From TrEMBL:
Residue ranges annotated for the Type II secretion system protein GspF domain, each copy included: 183-311
Record protein name field: Type II secretion system F family protein
Localization terms from the record: Cell membrane
Alphabetical UniProt keywords: Cell membrane, Membrane, Transmembrane, Transmembrane helix
Main location: membrane
InterPro entries, A to Z: T2SS_GspF_dom (IPR018076)
Lineage: Bacteria, Pseudomonadati, Pseudomonadota, Alphaproteobacteria, Hyphomicrobiales
Topology of the protein relative to the lipid bilayer: Multi-pass membrane protein
Keyword Plastid set for record: no
């Protein structure tokens, strides 16, 4: 009796499994016909939305009557300060070069830099006097208070150059990271038969999503190649604006190709590989410098917590004795 009941249960389980399998197979086969596919509808909606955004942005740009320019006009206040203090002739070539490397071109940034270089120490001096003598009421000798005020004024004088230097470093970092990829794209364009101006224009439009700074420099180089009589000057301006050794090497190859008519593709391939190796080397240096930098945070933050977790149970057991 028990054996017959076991066989009956096994047959029932097999029949139930077979029924579930058959139902699942029928469901899988009929699923595309039962459930509607919304992929085509979603793709159509995305396409229409992209087209609406494109039309809206195009109309917004067309509504702007002001022409787009990479140069900015000086503000009236800054220009007034520079004219009154006769600072127009005080800028040197190094200052202009640093501003160009930082991405500031034209008369406006130079005028603003000269004016801010004079206003920043005065503003810091006034703020320091207010805080030291009026707000804080420091109980220090007069000599110490004057030293604090003069230190604040000196900080205001050296802040604009530090800001420009920091801007140059960030801009060079962005260009350095994207330069090997730009060389690969430039190599593809040159080998496909495009001219150097068209190649620069195409690479600038493609590399913009990765580095806006590099795209801007390539656009400027394309414009200079179009209107400068000496094309070598356009390449030299690119190397001067970036200040990177990798860019200077490529510029040298471009100048030699323009002068002697040598093949440019092989030189670009070698330069791209060298710049890629340089980028990898910099990444390896940063990775190698990471453990020493983590030593102090680990000692300050991790080890006390670890010691507390390890020693606390032993202390609790000792106190219970």
């Amino acid at each position: 009796m028990g054996t017959a009941l076991l066989i009956y249960n096994m047959d029932l389980l097999i029949a139930l499994s077979a029924g579930i399998s058959a139902f699942a197979a029928i469901l899988v086969v009929s699923w595309p016909y039962v459930v509607r596919d919304h992929l085509a509808e979603r793709m159509a909606q995305a396409t229409s939305e992209s087209e609406r955004i494109r039309v809206r942005e195009r109309s917004r740009l067309n509504a702007q009557n002001k022409p787009i320019s990479l140069r900015s006009e000086p503000k009236r206040l800054y220009k007034l300060i520079v004219d009154r203090l006769n600072l127009a002739g005080t800028e040197d070539s190094i200052t202009v070069k640093n501003l160009r490397m930082a991405g500031y071109r034209g008369e406006g940034p130079i005028t603003a830099y000269l004016a801010i270089r004079q206003l920043a120490p005065l503003g810091m001096f006034v703020l320091a006097v207010l805080y030291v003598f009026v707000i804080l009421h420091l109980d220090y000798p007069l000599f110490v208070k004057l030293a604090i005020v003069m230190a604040a004024a000196s900080l205001g004088y050296y802040t604009p150059p530090l800001y420009v230097k920091n801007k140059i470093a960030k801009r060079q970092t962005s260009i350095r990271r994207s330069w090997p990829d730009a060389l690969d794209l430039l190599l593809i364009c040159v080998e496909s038969g495009m001219g150097i101006e068209g190649a620069f224009r195409k690479v600038s439009s493609e590399i913009g999503s990765q580095s806006v700074e590099l795209a801007e420099e390539l656009v400027l180089t394309t414009a200079e190649l179009s209107y400068l009589q000496d094309r070598r000057k356009a390449y030299e301006n690119l190397a001067e604006r970036t200040g990177l050794e990798g860019v200077k090497g490529v510029v040298t190859s471009l100048i030699q190709s323009e002068k002697y008519g040598t093949a440019l593709s092989q030189s670009l391939r070698v330069q791209a590989q060298e710049n890629r190796d340089m980028r990898m080397s910099e990444a390896e240096k940063k990775a190698a410098a990471l453990p020493p930098k983590l030593t102090v945070p680990m000692i300050i933050f991790f080890l006390p917590v670890l010691f507390a977790v390890i020693i606390t149970p032993a202390v609790i057991q000792f106190l219970k004795l």
